[in-house]
Amino acid sequence: MADKKRELRELKDAAEVARLQELSVYERDDMGFANSKLIQATFPYRDTGERQWTSTNGGMSVTITALSRKHGLPYGTYPRLLMIWLTGKVVENAHSFDPEDPARRKIFFGNHLSTFMEELGIEARYGSHTDFKGNVVESNSMRLAEQIRRVFNLNINIESLYELEDKAVESYTNTLISQNLELYWDKHSSPDQYSLLDSYVVLSEEFFDFLKSRPVPVDLGVLRKLKSSAMALDLYVWLTHRAFYARRPFIVPVPALMEQFGTSLDPDDSGDRRIFMKNMRKAVKKMHKVWPETSEELKTGEKKLEVLPRGKGLRVFPMNPSVPPKKSSRTKKPRRRG
DNA sequence: TACCGCGTCGGCGAAGTATC
DNA sequence: GATACTTCGCCGACGCGGTA
């Protein structure tokens, strides 16, 4: 019985992957956006119980701080999907509204939580129950509602150190994500307030401009296939951006990867580094499956995306973007740079 | 000493099914 | 058909033994 179920799931999975590869992102109407700066820093994978989280990438570090006493830091896959949905909405509003119109910063969630969840690629489930150990198990709709509260009660601090001609530049940006979050739950609807009744968030001016600048196209179909793994989501979005702009192959050492991704493991601990890379191998395998170019072999036998043995890190060769420019062919070779 | 492979655990998310 | 409850599977994390 279990084997049969697994078999059916694998068949379904294979059909979905085949569809991803047969149809372009435009034919599937699956294009979304991520922000190029937020790609380089992520949310934690689990509830850390802390009120602050920092991730570092080279000269840039991003610190998120929970502002609500009641709701802590966002974690897991939902806030990641939420940020991609939000970036898409911002890009859309930036094009359809007058740049001076404050209404462009007002983002509606829609009338129903289930519709909103569908937009994120999550099937709506409701209610909660107590498991045999007495723990309360919340449905995904309740978990998403909690992550919405957490994401929109954050402050983001970005610190960058870089060189510009003969100057060393320090840059500090502090921004609230939202200026105002209004969630209207329908009390007459069934137990856990399923109707959102035109709930909305008003993004802060700074955060709206931040998301609007340098959006990176991502394939929502690929994201849906990866959505059960926060690490795989991070890897895909990061790779989409990083591999395309790379001029030559590069290796990211394990501690650097750990500082950037959402793990709470210690980069200075060899055991933790090993655990992290084991998980990274799994994420890379998923990537090979849903984004075939990452598993392409070069004449040397090296794959374009590969975890190196003996804890050397992750090696990446330049690749086409996951979402190619509309006019170009999907099989186009990476452009030559430098 | 560092890395790898595997088993286990608790948490999270998805899916099946019952109920209204 | 929508909602509520239950179970299952996958994930990250942890621990341990084996290997180079």
Write the layout of secondary structure elements.
Blueprint: H1 2-22, E1 31-35, E2 52-57, E3 60-66, H2 77-96, E4 106-112, H3 113-120, E5 128-130, E6 136-138, H4 140-151, E7 154-164, E8 167-176, E9 178-182, E10 195-203, H5 205-212, E11 215-219, H6 220-226, H7 230-245, E12 250-252, H8 254-260, H9 270-290, E13 305-308, E14 313-316
Antiparallel strand pairs: 1-11, 2-3, 3-7, 4-10, 5-6, 7-8, 9-10, 12-14, 13-14
The chain binds a DNA duplex (20 and 20 nucleotides) through α1 and α9.
Defining key terms:
338 residues; alpha+beta; 4-stranded antiparallel β-sheet; 14 strands; disordered C terminus; DNA-binding
Q: Explain this structure to me?
A:
With 338 residues, the chain is α+β, with helices and mostly antiparallel strands. The protein is built from 9 helices and 14 strands. It has helices at residues 2-22, 77-96, 113-120, 140-151, 205-212, 220-226, 230-245, 254-260, 270-290; strands at 31-35, 52-57, 60-66, 106-112, 128-130, 136-138, 154-164, 167-176, 178-182, 195-203, 215-219, 250-252, 305-308, 313-316. The strands form 5 sheets. A 4-stranded antiparallel β-sheet has the order 2-3-7-8. A hairpin with a 2-residue loop joins strand 2 and strand 3 (60-66). The longest helix is centred in the N-terminal third of the chain and has 21 residues, at 2-22.
